[in-house]
Amino acid sequence: MKERITVFDIEVLNQDPASICAIGIVELIDGEITSTYYSLIKPKNLSYDAYRYKVHQIKPKSLYKEKTFSEVWQEIHHYFEESIVVSHDIQGDMMNLRAAFKQNRIPYPHLYMSCTNVLAHLVYPHLHKYNVKELSLMIGFNFQAHQALDDAKACAQILIEMLKHEDCSTITALHQKFRLEFGEMKENYYRNIISAEVAPQLLEMNERTDSLLYHQSVCFTGKLSMPKEILEEKTKQMSGLPSHQVSTQTNYLVIGKEGYHKVRFGKENKKVKKALQLMKQGQDLKIIHENEYLKLLETKR
């Protein structure tokens, strides 16, 4: 069966996460570029943002006659449905796509997610910088930064070079080599790939594949019964991934037993508020009591 990968990049017009103003797509089938796509997009919010304009040089007035996101989605949905989708900041790019889906009442397509930034931290663990520009220079690929199609082409070339470097014929094989799970999106469900920041932990951690916490991102809040550092170490021993912030990668938010109900059902804890927001958006995230988590540490799949 052929492996189909959609590598993409987007540009955002302003601080509205749904204000996607350009998208570039490169389709790979069995490691070969088979098609590309580029379009400007007219978002509903056309506010000017000086910072973002400096990055991509796209002015709101240049978008007045462009297609809307819904119109562009009709042209590109086949690239995303039942595909492995890759970008260099998949967490951020998917956040923008999800916002655009919600704004335009478009159901989530079913897809799997990977990230060249995460993979680069595993394939090239000793680099100082992992941005698209630096990685492209390293592999000898010249491109125009912050032009969505050129960025997507650069990302595709980085992926192709990493596959060659690790002697893998598919991105699935590359993920298996590093025991890295794909993210997944489908209707009313969203589970992200791990972040680039925690990816190096995969190179060092104990491989407890039988652990229920295997490659699960765990964040702690509230007053715990033991030092957080001890719980984080126990998490690592069970092949879990401790994190200090709730994000689109978080699988569990653990609340300390002391004052649990006030933290869980009050309105002041920022981590709980963030977790509830992500859960409402379909993220596979659980908020649990510290005692329940201690049991999970001993639970096998």
From TrEMBL:
Source organism, top-level taxon: Bacteria
Matching InterPro entries: BRCT_dom, BRCT_dom_sf, Ribonucl_H, RNaseH-like_sf, RNaseH_sf
Pfam families: BRCT, RNase_T
GO molecular function: 3'-5' exonuclease activity; nucleic acid binding
GO cellular component: cytosol
All copies of domain BRCT, residue ranges: 208-301
PANTHER family named among the record's database cross-references: DNA POLYMERASE III SUBUNIT EPSILON, EXONUCLEASE
Protein name: DNA polymerase-3 subunit epsilon
